[in-house]
Amino acid sequence: MLEQRIEQQFIDSADLKYQAAHILSKPIAAAVQAILTSVTSGGKVLACGNGGSAADAQHFAAEFVGRYERERPELGAIALTTDSSILTAIANDYDFNVIFSKQVRALGGAGDVLLAISTSGNSANVLAAIEAAHEREMTVVALTGRGGGKMTQALRETDVHICVPHERTARIQEVHLLVLHCICDGVDTQLLGDQEPSV
Ligand SMILES: O=C(CO)[C@@H](O)[C@H](O)[C@H](O)[C@H](O)COP(=O)(O)O
Ligand SMILES: [Zn+2]
């Protein structure tokens, strides 16, 4: 029955979040430190991903540049998924696999962070963006699932890997959004202290 199926999805999503809380708190804290180090030294976050993860990249950039829950100075973040002219020109003239990596090479510099989001860890354009970020001496914060796929091998020891322990894209994405909000909250707390949010 449809209602039972819906209820089961809420339960599965909540269960995964309970399990992931302990496993992911350490890498999420490491991501907060990496991003904080970057943005407090004049750096920025470049965020990319496909489909639902493209939406996550944009969601994160909005909360960084605008605000999350509290007023604070603007923080630098750019979603590499939003400029239709850049995306169509690169995909049309080169290849879809380089839509993010060319932007990373154009916009990224040493000390910036690449936020690379892929539930499978296997999207070729995100993998190419990681390679470009390493060329630019950027740190990578990777959000994945399903064991991390090819991204596990592509990351360096100085990068941060937040891998959701699940196989299903939708459930992984639901945890990714929570992870992104934890990163925003962690950065705000490090910058402003831990008083209650105003919104
Ligand atoms: O949101 C969803 C499924 O929930 C889809 O749009 C999904 O993001 C797309 O199929 C992506 O292309 C999947 O890419 P990835 O997460 O494996 O890197
Ligand atoms: Zn989705």
Automatic annotation (TrEMBL):
Q: How does the record describe its quaternary structure?
A: Homotetramer.
Q: Which GO terms describe its molecular function?
A: isomerase activity
For this chain's record, the cofactor binding note is: Binds 1 zinc ion per subunit.
Give the top-level enzyme category: isomerase
The places in or outside the cell where this protein is found are: Cytoplasm
Tell me which residues bind Zn(2+). 59, 63, 173, 181
The UniProt function text for this chain reads: Catalyzes the isomerization of sedoheptulose 7-phosphate in D-glycero-D-manno-heptose 7-phosphate.
Involved pathway(s):
Carbohydrate biosynthesis; D-glycero-D-manno-heptose 7-phosphate biosynthesis; D-glycero-alpha-D-manno-heptose 7-phosphate and D-glycero-beta-D-manno-heptose 7-phosphate from sedoheptulose 7-phosphate: step 1/1
What name has this protein been given in UniProt?
Phosphoheptose isomerase
Q: Where is the SIS domain?
A: 35-197
Any other comment in the entry? Answer: The reaction produces a racemic mixture of D-glycero-alpha-D-manno-heptose 7-phosphate and D-glycero-beta-D-manno-heptose 7-phosphate.
Alphabetical list of InterPro entries matching this protein: GmhA/DiaA, Phosphoheptose_Isoase, SIS_dom, SIS_dom_sf, SIS_GmhA/DiaA_subfam
Which residues are recorded as binding substrate? 50-52, 63, 92-93, 118-120, 123, 173
- Alphabetically list the UniProt keywords: Carbohydrate metabolism, Cytoplasm, Isomerase, Metal-binding, Zinc
Enzyme Commission (EC) number? 5.3.1.28
Identify the cofactor(s).
Zn(2+)
Q: Which transformation does this protein catalyse, written as a reaction?
A: 2 D-sedoheptulose 7-phosphate = D-glycero-alpha-D-manno-heptose 7-phosphate + D-glycero-beta-D-manno-heptose 7-phosphate
User: Which organism is this protein's natural source?
Assistant: Polaromonas jejuensis
What family does this belong to? Belongs to the SIS family. GmhA subfamily.
UniProt keyword annotation of DNA damage present:
no
